[in-house]
Amino acid sequence: MIKFITFFLFTLSSYASEISKAIVETQVNESFITKFEYGKMLYNNPRGISCAKCHGADAKGMVLSKFKHYEKKNTYYCEIKTDDITRVSLDVFKAKLDPEIKEKRPKFGEGEVCAKMIYGNTMPKYFLTQNELESIYYYITQLNKK
Question: Which of 43, 94, 115, 117 is most buried, with most CB under 10 Å away?
Fold first, then answer.
């Protein structure tokens, strides 16, 4: 009798585990908005300027501005270009958007006048939750797969 009860309880707990997994899967599949859709919405309209305005609809980056800079009788032709963010790691992606993380400024050579001028001045800082960052990251990494 004890063997039967043990077998019955084991079977019942296994069945309960399968039911709870099915419920969770159903909730995910029937959610109001998918992770891709949520990421797309945030990419196009975060709190502040849209990511798409600077990185493009495909997140591949683009030239924002071209200008001439005059220094010490030299003319420099500069451009502000955003990065392709479809292939960065999640850690790099989060670091660029985290207002608490201060990047260490690299040393620039004498001929790197344009890079020195625009370094660190182009990417706005957003105050997004970890879930929002991960949703945007998911969206941009899935763009080429759809």
Answer: 43
